[in-house]
Amino acid sequence: MSIAGILLLAILLMPPAHAGTQQGGDLQAQIVYAYQSEDMHGLADLIHQLAEQIHMDTADASLRYHLAHAQYRFGLLAGDTRAGEAEAAFADCVDELKPALRQYPQPVEDLALQSACYRALAGFKKLEAALLRSRAAQRLQAAYKLAPRNPRVVFLLSEENLARAKPGSPEYSHAFSQMQLAAQLFDESAATAVDTPGWGQAEAYLALGRELRLRGDHLGARNWIEKSLIVAPDYKAAQRELKLLATS
After folding, report:
1. Residue of 79, 118, 80, 119 whose CA lies nearest to 97
2. If 201 and its partner were Cys, which of 81, 100, 186, 233 is the partner (CB 3.0–4.6 Å)?
3. pTM for the complete prediction?
4. 3-state secondary structure of 182
5. Cα separation of 182 and 178, whole Å?
6. Distances (CA, A) of 220 to 188, 213, 214
7. pLDDT category, 78, cuts 50, 70, 90?
8. What is the rounded CA–CA span in Å between residue 3 and residue 231?
9. pLDDT per residue over 152-188, tens digit each?
10. Is the pLDDT of residue 89 over 70?
11. Cα 130 from Cα 206, distance rounded (Å)
12. What is residue 82's DSSP assignment?
């Protein structure tokens, strides 16, 4: 078992008085760290341990959210090189969030995460891609209506809009402004409670840095990439981007 798996097992065995708020924060931190450090074995262990815990307590919506988040991150790391595993992880993420979406009237974070998983899954299911992208857009728009200043929602929306827009178009400029707003919102909400989702900050800073590099603004790009590494020093994608910027 990896270190991440051992740590998770220790957390799950903590006394009830400590298990609520702190457990959520610890789980989130482990998932994000495993993703940023590209530790697929650690993510796989987390997924396995969370699935076992949910099997014993099927009603725990927070554990289901963490499991879906871990599956989403695993799928991103697996990518095209391990396409079968990536597709399965994104599909599992979508399914894991369905009970929460049926149970709660305004599950903003669940809507946002399921949207991201639907959008990622569309890249692997060519025949169903249009339907999956439509579902992703519906979930994200619903989340945006409920929480238009949620940094994860705004960031995911900016990524979706940038992917569809032509460079130099008004739509592209609007999407870029959304990404800037997402970074600002993450700045303003950096000190979130440990029992609420708080992922995406380093990713948003890195994404903004990449866009600025593509625009030729190397100074602005460096600023945001370095901010990403301040938030997540072991973020390998940001480390690579900083090296790329130095050689460009």
Report:
1. 118
2. 186
3. 0.88
4. helix
5. 6
6. 19, 8, 11
7. very high
8. 22
9. 999 999 999 999 999 999 999 999 999 999 999 999 9
10. yes
11. 28
12. G
Specify the DSSP element, H or E, that contains 216.
none
DSSP string, 106-131: --HHHHHHHHHHHHHHHTT-GGGHHH
- Nearest one of 99, 189, 191 to 152, comparing CA atoms: 189
DSSP 17: H
Rg (CA), the chain: 18
pLDDT tens digit sequence for 94-122 = 999 998 888 876 799 999 999 999 999 99
Q: Where are the domains of the chain?
A: 149-248
**What's the one-letter identity of residue 108?**
V
CB 113 within 8 A of CB 93: yes
Q: Which fold has domain 149-248?
A: 1.25.40
For residue 138, give every residue at least 6 positions away whose Cβ sits within 8 Å of its Cβ, in sequence order, or none.
115
pLDDT of residue 61: 83
pLDDT above 70: residue 35: yes
Q: Are 183 and 13 in contact (CB under 8 A)?
A: no
